Amino acid sequence: MAVDAVAEIKARLDIVEVVGGYLTLQRSGREFKGLCPFHAEKTPSFTVSQERQFWYCFGCQQGGDLFGFVERIERADFRQALELLADRAGVELESTQGGPARGAARDRRRALELNARAQQYYEHVLWSTPAGAPGRALLEERGVAEALARRFGIGFAPAGGAAGDALVRYLTTRSGAGVHEGVQAGLAQPSRGGPSRDRFRHRLVFPIREERGAILGFGGRALGDAMPKYLNTPETVAYHKSQAIFGIDLARRAIERERCAVVVEGYFDVLAAHAAGVEHVVASSGTALAREQVRALGRHASVITLCFDGDDAGRAAASRAVDVIAMEGLQARICVLPAGAKDPDDLVRQDPAAFAAAVATAAPEWQVLLDGALAGAEGGSIDARRGAAERVVTVLARIPEAATRDLYLQQAARRLDIGARSLAADLAREERQRPGRPPRLVLPPPPAAATADEPAMDGAEDSGTDAHMPQWEAYLGSIVVHRPALAHVLTQELGLDIGALTHPTARRIVEVALTADESAFPLHRLTQQDQSHAARLMVLDVPELDTESDPEALVRAMQDCVRDVHEATALRSAALIQRELLQAKEEGRDDEVRLLAARLAALAAEAPHLRHTLSTR
C-alpha cells in the first residue's frame, strides 16, 4: 500500500467534511458532535476532532480515522475505502505507485471488464440459445427457478465447436480483446501448438462477485460425469481463491441484519438456501475456508455458522474451519443436518423449513466438537471413557479463551464422571507436548493491589482477550498515538519490552508506531477494533505532552509507566509459577517442585521490590 497516497488523501480531505456528508454534525467547542450512525441513540455521543482528524463514539466505543469511518459506513475493506476517498480527493492512485502497480491496476480493470462481458455471453447462451438446453435441464433437475438463477447471473459455457473457442471469438469481436487478455483474465487457456481455447466449455457457469457486484471470476459445474466436476477461474489479477466468496454480493445485507454469515460448501447449496428464504448464506468458492475469507465476513458479522455436507469430509472441513474462525476472534457455530440429508441443497429440496430451523438452532462450535469427542462414551466402560477423555483434551487444547475452555472442561468431566483436576492436568500436559506450538498458559491478573486503580476501557472489546487495559498501558498508548516518534524512546532508551504489554491493542499500537514514517499515527494500519481502542486513547489528554515549564515531566511519566509494566510482568510470572508449583506438589512431581521453587526464588532476587508478594509456599 502506498503510504504517499494515504498521506496525500488525508492532506486533501477534511474528516469533518467527509463525515458530514453522511450525518449532521454540530460544533461543540473544538470538536463536532452528532448522532452515531453505527448504533441507535437519541443524545449525540459521536465526536469528530478536526484538529486530530479522528472520530470516536462514546456510546458504542467505535472510532478511527477517515479511512476507518468510510470502511464502516460503506461496509468496505481498506482498499475499497482508499479508492473511494482517492476519487473524492482527486488523487490518482496509480501515479503514487510504481510502474508494475500501474500495470496491475490496468490489468485488473480489464479483467473485470472482460468477466462482465463473459457473464453476459454465458447468460445469453443459457436462456436464449439451443446450446444452453443442457444447462437449463440441469437447473430444472436441481429445482432452481429461472428467476433465482437470473438473480445470481448463472450462465452456460457452450462447447464451442471443434476449436472450443466460442467465448474467445466473442470477446475478440465484441471487446477487441487480445488473446493474452483472455488468458490473463482466466477466461481462456493457451492450447499446445494452436490458438487459445475457452477455459469453461460445456459447463453451467456461476459468476463469483465481490461485495459490490464486480465479477472476479467463475465457477463451472460439469454436466454428467465429466471431470473435474467443478472448475474455477485460476489465480488472476482479479480473482484470488482464498479471498473470493460466492454470493457475498447478494447476502451482504442479510448478513449485516442477522450479524451472522452462514457458510456452505457448494454453489447449489447457496441457491437452495436463498430459495428457502435463508439469505445470509455464502460459499467459500470450492476451497477450504481461508483467513482472508473469514476476515471479510467479519466486517459484517460477529458469528459464522458452518453448514457443510453431512459426510466425514464435511465434518472434517467444519472442524478445520473452526480454528481459522477462532484465529480471527469470531464466534462460530456448526449446523448439524438432520439424518438423511447429505447437504443443504438436499435438505431444502426435502423440507425448506427444516433447513431454516437447522441454521437457526446451530450450536456453538466447541459444543458440537465436544459432543463428537464424547460420542458413545458417557456411562460406558473405563476404556471407552479413557478414549473419550483423550479426544476431549485434543478439542479443549484448541479453545483460545481460557474461561470458555474451563467451562467445557468442567462439562466434559461431569459427563465422563472423572475429576476436573485430572482432566486439567492432561490438558496442561497436552499443551506442553504439542510440537511446534507453544502451550496456551492462563495468566492470572496481577494482585489486587497492583490493579485497584486500573480504569476499564468501557465497552472496549477484543475477542479472545481481556477488554480492560491497565492504566499504565493506556497511558503509554495515549502517548504513542499522539506522538508516534516517542515509541522509539520508549523501546530503545527506556527499555520497554513490547511483549510485556498485556493488552493486544497496546502492543500493536507501539509496533505500528515503530514502523511508521508519518508524523501522525497511521490508524488505518490497525484493525477496526484496534482503531476504536486507539481512538479512545486519542481522546484522552496527556498533560505532559504540552508541558513547557518542566520538559522532563514526560520522560519521568514514561519511565514510571515502563516500570509499572515490568512490575506487572514479574507479578504475572510469579503467579503463574506459584500455580504450577501448587499443581506439581499436589501431583507429587518433586523434581519439578524444586525447579519451580528455584525459578520463583530467582525471580524474587531479580525483583526485590516484589519479594514480599512472592512465596514458594
Please give a structural write-up.
- With 617 residues, the chain is an alpha+beta fold.
- It has 5 domains: 3-96, Alpha-Beta Complex (DNA Primase, Chain A), CATH 3.90.580.10; 102-232, DNA primase, catalytic core, N-terminal domain (DNA primase DNAg catalytic core, N-terminal domain, Alpha-Beta Complex), CATH 3.90.980; 248-361, Dna Topoisomerase Vi A Subunit, Chain: A, domain 2, CATH 3.40.1360.10; 370-433; 444-617, DNAb Helicase, Chain A (Orthogonal Bundle).
- The strands form 4 sheets. The chain has a 5-stranded antiparallel beta sheet. Strands 13-12-14-15-16 form a 5-stranded mixed beta sheet.
- The radius of gyration is 29 Å and the shape is globular.
- The two termini are 55 Å apart.
- The model is unreliable at 95-101, 436-467 and 611-617 (pLDDT under 50).
List the helices and strands and how they pair.
Blueprint: H1 3-12, H2 15-20, E1 26-28, E2 31-34, E3 46-49, E4 54-57, E5 63-64, H3 66-74, H4 78-89, H5 99-128, H6 133-141, H7 146-151, E6 155-157, H8 166-175, H9 179-184, E7 188-191, E8 194-198, E9 203-209, E10 215-222, E11 230-232, H10 248-258, E12 260-264, H11 267-275, E13 281-283, H12 291-298, E14 303-306, H13 312-327, E15 331-334, H14 344-350, H15 352-360, E16 363-364, H16 365-374, H17 382-396, H18 402-416, H19 420-433, H20 448-451, H21 471-482, H22 486-493, H23 504-514, H24 528-539, H25 553-586, H26 590-606
Helix pairs in contact: 1-4, 3-4, 5-8, 11-14, 14-15, 16-17, 16-18, 17-18, 17-19, 21-23, 21-24, 21-25, 25-26
